[in-house]
Amino acid sequence: MESLIIRPGHLTAHQTAQLLGITLGGVRKLVQHGRLTRSGGTDRQPWYAVPDVTALAAERPTRNAA
What we know:
By secondary structure, this protein is of the alpha+beta class. It has 3 helices and 3 strands; from the N terminus they run E-H-H-E-E-H. Strands 1-3-2 form a 3-stranded antiparallel sheet. The termini are far apart. The model has no long low-confidence stretch (mean pLDDT 89).
């Protein structure tokens, strides 16, 4: 279960995955490759800074429905 209390300006791993359109495994890969840094939480429930996540989201190509 996700923590119900999170510092302002942070996202849970689930929220990060949803915003980026990837799985939790994808979030872990971003961390492993050094593209995303944990900014709080615990080992099991990490938090990520909103500016870091939105910067990654801006880099991702958008998919056009054709």
